[in-house]
Specification:
single chain, globular, five-stranded antiparallel sheet, alpha+beta, Phosphatase 2c, domain 1
């Protein structure tokens, strides 16, 4: 089974967190979600803090109750339920909602198969899973390369004074299209684009699931490599690491240097152990 060792979900400055972590450890299931920040021209869920908040919160609630099954079946059911919830709440069909206004989220969902001593990971970019074997070095589970280098794009758009929401809205309209990018959304086309991987996970294996805001410690600020990050989470706790992270996110003038659209992003992490 899985044991939850630690977790945290910390909002970026002046925000309500659009990240979520969850688990059903007695069933060997856990997940992390990162709602895609609003760039919509018209809000779909004005009663919520943001559309991204509503979408991540709804997906998290659904994952707590969906029956166990193969990853594609679970995520397919999740997408179907999200589709129904969006149409019910907005009173509109999916076809009537502009593609650039559609909410979406990054997702990593894991399921432990104890008899086979392996983890099944199902993901849409850009969350990260780091695995620390009982002996050896921690490593980030390989994932599909991003369609765009966000740090390079952020530096370019910020320096140019571009209309960033308009640019991102045009990109969002490409979600789950054949010429676009995969992401958790309400589109059935997302199901076959789910990235599924299998990792050996004997008892004693530790796993760190985190959103890209938390993973800035590694890929943006270069404070830890993957092995160092999961070991620091084990030694100091994920909340301590978030405190360290925020020390780099006090000054918006550094946004171009680091290549970040948001000075302080939501950061969430879940630390697990196979027992």
């Amino acid at each position: 089974m899985l044991t939850a060792l630690d977790q945290a979900d910390d909002p970026g400055k002046g925000r309500d967190s659009e990240d979520r972590v969850g688990h059903r450890t007695d069933e060997g299931i856990a997940w992390v979600l990162d709602g895609a920040t609003d760039v919509c021209a018209t809000r779909l869920f004005p009663e919520a803090p943001s559309d991204a908040f509503w979408f991540a919160d709804t997906a998290d609630a659904l994952l707590r109750d969906l029956p166990k099954g193969a990853p594609a079946d679970v995520v397919g059911a999740l997408i179907g339920d999200l589709r129904q919830r969006v149409e019910l709440r907005t009173g509109r069909t999916i076809a009537d909602i502009p593609p650039g206004d559609m909410p979406s989220a990054a997702l990593t969902w894991v399921h432990l198969e104890p008899q086979a001593q392996r983890l099944i990971l199902a993901a849409y970019p850009d969350c990260t899973a780091i695995v620390l074997p009982p002996s050896g070095t921690g490593f980030a589970v390989e994932k599909a390369p991003p369609r765009l280098n966000e740090q390079v794009q952020a530096r370019t758009l910020i320096a140019a004074g571009a209309d960033i929401p308009a640019v991102l809205r045009a990109q969002r309209a490409m979600m789950n299209r054949p010429d676009g990018y995969p992401v958790l959304s309400v589109h059935r086309e997302a199901v076959p684009r789910l990235d599924i991987r299998t990792i050996e996970a004997p008892p004693g294996t530790r796993i760190l699931l985190c959103t890209d805001g938390f993973y800035r410690l590694t890929d943006m600020y270069d404070l830890y490599d993957d092995d160092g990050l999961i070991r620091a989470a084990l030694d100091c706790g994920v909340t301590s690491l978030i405190t360290e992270l925020r020390g780099f996110e006090a000054d918006a003038s550094d946004d171009v240097r680091f290549g970040r659209f948001k000075t302080s992003d939501d950061a969430a992490a879940l630390l697990l152990e196979v027992t």
